[in-house]
Amino acid sequence: MSSNSDAEIAAAAAAPSASQEVAEVLAAAPPPVSDSASSAVPNSESENNPSPPGPNPEAPVGWPADGKLSLEWIRNLMSVFDWASRNLDPTQLPDVFPVEVFDSLVLCASKILHKESNCVAVDQLGPESTVVVVGDLHGQLHDLLFLLNDAGFPSENRFFVFNGDYVDRGAWGLESFLILLAWKVFLPRSVYLLRGNHESKYCTSVYGFEKEVLTKYGDKGKHVYRKCLGCFEGLPLTSMVGKYVYTAHGGLFRSTPATPKRSKGKKNRRIAFNPEPSSTLSLGSFEELNKARRSVLDPPWEGSNLIPGDVLWSDPSMKPGLSPNKERGIGLLWGPDCTEDFLKKFQLKLIIRSHEGPDAREKRPGLGGMDNGYTIDHIVESGKLITLFSAPDYPQFQGTEERYRNKGAYIVLEPPNFDNPVFHSFEAITPRPKANPFYNFEEVIDSDEELDLASMATSP
């Protein structure tokens, strides 16, 4: 005989599910952000001047029956994530974005990304085209939403190149990354997502993204995290905008000697690889770049496949020459002479890289700070090297009361040659919704220095 009474059973059957409760709350309360750029008010009387309400987002988000995304679907996704960040506990994210929809989106995006070359060509440009280049985002969802509204959504004539570091540190890395994947699926020839050093197993396990995903998706969290890692592996490394502009997360890369073929005999099958001595380092070619194997969870810092690590982790220097990046333990440092050599050799005029926020730049004598979201690091005969950072008031979580209060920025490249950068700086959207960090920000270093290389998985 059951211990439950008929009344208890009936009450349980009539009780609304978590998704139903979310839907009811959504219907009752308008979201805080409308579809217009003016709704995102950067640092202006914040709490006393709330954003005007917009149309209610529709949740839970469903996958289109025909499998084709639309502008309306993406706009709703952005509204749902914004609303959820302000009104729901992180563990309730599956109620508005079910894991089945996540699977469909990541599968579609991964199929597109894995087919792209290591250096994607953004060359379908016409006299009406513009190209928007975006730097580090680091899970700052609301600043990303403002940026997209401010720059104008991607379209057939408005191209976007994102330079990586979508996740970690900020509380909404997953939502930020999913929004960008949706844009990629919708407009695969107008939106280009490059890999950053934080799109890796090591960084996401240290700086919060893994814990964020496990928290938000609970018993499905490991599945969601694995799918994200697989998608990270497919992200291209660099882009070429038109004929004259090279973009990458970290920057330049070395030439790597050809790997010797293995002997067919039983003896001497093991190959001892000696990394190129620093005194003989030289800049690599685009042919070498496109032959590099990018499908590694953590780009190796030793062995023969060094180009992915260089592209993702390297930094400019004011000191001439090309040398190992001893501060980070992976990648390179390159001086103004190397910038000139690279630009001249490949007939380029501009390098746009990211990778360094205000915390990292504070420790880099001779290079500009990140107060305005960008710095012009090298001005040489053939052109310029620019560092671009798109996460304002970074990092979101900080152990000290004194903050950098940096602006974020994006760059617009315009015809005819798309080599004259127009900078757009913006302040952080305030107030940010209250959130708990997903990593121990008081103990973890801020600028990715002194990496625990032993814990990074090496891939030959």
From TrEMBL:
It comes from the Eukaryota. GO terms for molecular function: metal ion binding; protein serine/threonine phosphatase activity. The keyword Manganese applies. Its EC number is 3.1.3.16. Residues 194-199 form the Serine/threonine specific protein phosphatases domain. It catalyses: O-phospho-L-threonyl-[protein] + H2O = L-threonyl-[protein] + phosphate. Keywords: Hydrolase, Manganese, Metal-binding. InterPro entries: Calcineurin-like_PHP (IPR004843), Metallo-depent_PP-like (IPR029052), MPP_PP7 (IPR041754), PPP_phosphatase (IPR051134), Ser/Thr-sp_prot-phosphatase (IPR006186). Its cofactor is Mn(2+). Residues 1-49 have a biased composition (Low complexity). Residues 1-63, 257-279 are annotated as: Disordered. It is an enzyme of class 3 (hydrolase). Residues 261-270 have a biased composition (Basic residues). Pfam families: Metallophos. Belongs to the PPP phosphatase family. This is Serine/threonine-protein phosphatase. It comes from Malus domestica.
